[in-house]
Design a protein that fits this description.
199 residues, Rossmann fold, two-stranded parallel sheet, 8 strands
Length: 199
């Protein structure tokens, strides 16, 4: 039988530092929707560490959803629901969540996915509930690391619609959608944890 699990080396490197931030961000209980779950390595790591929460993974790619399901089954996790098939720019098949998590999507998607993410999250979150974003960003007044500049160039070579986003632009869209100003945590490898809370 073919093993459907995907492996992303970056996930192994960043999952624990992300979990450290999420412990102070996610609610004590409830449903956490993950957008663009990819391999599923993040969501199963978080679910194993936070058994009081229920995690709802999602991804538009069939291979990603198969990987999420395979990781969940392999680890025997009862608090990870079957992954949903949808893209942020589609109609979201979920009416409410207690938190939304999105890791490394905004820069590997067309810009139009960002307002769709923020507006979708605003619709399903209650006041005070968090939207957690992780990834590399450009920041006003901060010199972008050479590694991030190289990454940005590589992304654009693969798809001109991809690339590092300005944190200020994302924050402006978030405010319009109904979120607070961002809470920003510096992370390893020139990434940021960005938390918006529903107003």
């Amino acid at each position: 039988m073919t093993d459907a699990r995907l492996y992303y080396p970056a996930t192994q490197r960043n999952r624990d530092v992300i979990l450290g931030v999420l412990r102070g961000v996610l609610p004590a209980s409830g449903l956490v929707l993950e957008i663009a779950s990819g391999s599923g390595e993040h969501v199963v790591h978080f679910a194993a560490a936070l058994p009081q929460l229920t995690f709802q993974p999602s991804d538009p790619e069939d291979a990603a959803r198969r990987s999420v399901a395979a990781w969940t089954e392999r680890l025997g996790l009862s608090n990870v629901l079957p992954p949903l098939a949808f893209h942020v720019q589609d109609k979201w098949p979920i009416d409410a969540a207690d938190a939304v998590v999105c890791i490394n999507m905004i820069h590997i998607a067309p810009w139009e996915a960002t307002p769709a993410l923020l507006q979708g999250a605003a619709r399903i979150l209650s006041p005070g509930a968090p939207l957690y974003l992780y990834g590399p960003y450009r920041q006003k007044g901060v010199v972008t690391a050479a590694s991030n500049e190289a990454f940005d160039a590589d992304l654009k070579s693969r798809n001109p619609a991809w690339g590092l986003r300005k944190l200020e632009d994302v924050a402006d869209l978030a405010r319009t959608a109904g979120f607070s100003a961002p809470e920003v945590t510096l992370m390893p490898a020139n990434n940021l944890s960005v938390v918006f809370r529903r107003v």
